[in-house]
Amino acid sequence: MDNYSVKKLSQLAGVSVRTLHLYDKIDLLKPSVRTEARYRLYGSKELLRLQQILFYRELGFPLKEICTILDDPAFDLEQALEGHKVALLARKERINTLIGTIDKTLVTLKNNAMLQVEDLYEGIPQEKVTAYRTAAMAQWGKDTILEVENNLRDLGKDEMTSIQAELHEITKQLVPLIHSDPKSATVQQYIARRYALTTQLSGGEIAPAKLDYFRKLGELHAANNHDVTADGLPSREVATFLQTATAYYIKNKQQ
Fold this sequence. Notes:
single chain, mainly alpha, 3 domains, 3-stranded antiparallel sheet
């Protein structure tokens, strides 16, 4: 049977020699052998006990309570290990959740800080934003609007700006087609991409309420964004065309 010195055991277990001396002093972990030169030696039984000590310490138990648990005649090692496993798996899940939250926060920070409500409605006068949000919440529910806004915040400012720019470019490409058939393959190709980007903005497949929100928001942006209609067409006419073409796309998509 192998015996381990204090130094070797400390290296194996990742604890300090001083900690092992303390455990010996309070009768939590005694060496199996003490040589004539007073050196401490530990065997396999002590290794298993130290493992239990470290598990309980990881779970926040005080040393005195650990000593009471391990010295209890009814202590069952296998049952204790099963319990440790369950507790550690639960802790692992909590830690993974925290790590996921940290990762999202880091992405947000790297994307030029967290978006404010004003950023989500950039390009629209503040008084119109306030009136629109109030009306939108009344029509589709406060939870729906807040969920959409939170999804937009999760994207971060850079990604949000990139998606908005592509949506803007698609609209510009559609302007010359405004008097053509909104059901045509060319128009529907643009609308399909526009719908995919809107899905990305909403955080997943678009529920009818979310789609209505984005459709109305698009109209509001169009009404306040004059360079969308670079050829002089009224922005309201563009918005109506987009609405008709999108409605046709959704109808065919659902079939």
